[in-house]
Amino acid sequence: MPTRLFTARPRRFLIGLLGVACLAQVSLPARAHPHAWIGVQSTAVLSPDGTFATIKEQWLFDEIYSAAIMDGMAADSPSGQATVREYAAMVIENLKSYDYFTKITVDGKPIHLDQASEFAGTMQGNQLLLTFTAPLSQPVDPVAHQVTYAIYDPSYFIQMTHRPEQPPVIEGRARQACRLRVAAPNPTPEDIARAYALDRGAQAEDGLGDLFAETVHFQCG
Question: Rounded to an integer, what distance in angstroms lies between the CA atom of residue 183 and that of residue 163?
Fold first, then answer.
């Protein structure tokens, strides 16, 4: 199984996936990577047998990025209008092949996500909020195996981190007491320098986002 969500032309592909080609027309600061921010909330859902079977996610886009998305959607719409529902549907359709930017590992091996069963797009003030629920392709036992997940943009065009006030949580009960621990990334000074050297027009190297991704660990027992 591939270990990365996508490998070719990550930044250009990401923009196409998320429907934000309008970024080129929006006055954003000419800063280094990342260029946008998404606050993440995640819930690991356990089945009655205690296996990790489903993940629920909320993505809260920053205000500038939210405005760019909606402006771009409106510009591409025949009616000149756009809805967050349309945007959510497009993201869910396009990101399925990339596990919705969610990398789950079991004993170090990747587990893919099946089609999201629920999704919605709403506005929270001036920020776009995308929510979805997706089942794992195969449920895993967090007691018997080392289970982790990370939610991130592999190109690091967008920085995705859990919001401090809403850490990841578990829904349901495992065979033993379990909790989730967020491990912060630990990029080297050289990694940070590489990211900051990329302006908005530059294409990030494959896997740059891996170096800046949080990892959520199941800890059971």
Answer: 13
